[in-house]
Amino acid sequence: MIRGSCLCGGVQFEAKKVPLIGLCHCSLCRKANGAAFESGAVVPADDLELTKGDELIQAYESSPGTRRCFCRVCGSRAPSKSADGTHYFVPAGLLDDDPGVKPALHMFVGSKAPWWDITDDLPQFEEWVPGYGPDDPK
Ligand SMILES: [Zn+2]
Ligand SMILES: [Zn+2]
After folding, report:
1. Distance, CA 52 to ligand 1 centroid (Å)?
2. Model pLDDT for residues 22-75, shown as the tens digit of each residue
3. Which domain holds residue 80?
4. pTM above 0.85?
């Protein structure tokens, strides 16, 4: 099990596995995280269990259908379900254990912060990873 929690520890969860971590540079992710990019782990919904603090989680709909969850006590991000309910997006900074994977790609590099330079050799996508956008068939 890979454990995760928010800053105050009120929200806790366990993931069976973390198949992928992607780095998103879009302006919404940057603001939501207060960071250069979001390091987002993608976990199938069946593989993640909220073990504590469900009642502390509040959601902000940053664009139609996209709910960004956070802990209303400490303000940390919390796991957020995808619009179709199949996945959780988990800010990887919440993970307490090593997920066993490293970031695989950069997305939305077209709206990257001007003060951040990407210095690794991971694949870069201007916007969505082709085939995984909101309008692509699942
Ligand atoms: Zn918290
Ligand atoms: Zn983003």
Report:
1. 10
2. 999 999 999 999 999 999 999 999 999 999 999 999 999 998 888 999 999 999
3. 2-111
4. yes
Q: Which two tokens stand for residue 67?
A: 């709910």
How wide is the angle at C-alpha 12 spanned by C-alphas 31 and 82, nearest 5°? 50
- Those residues whose beta carbon sits under 5 angstroms from the ion ligand 2 are 24, 26, 29
How far is ligand 1, taken at its centre, from the CA of residue 63, in Å?
A: 23
pLDDT tens-digit readout, 75-97: 999 999 998 899 999 999 999 99
Ligand 1 mean position to 89 CA, how many Å? 17
17 in a structural domain: yes
In a domain, 64, yes or no: yes
Q: How many domains does the chain have?
A: 1
Coil, helix or strand for 106?
Answer: strand
- CA neighbours within 13 Å on the CB side: how many for 56? 23
CATH number at residue 46: 2.170.150.70
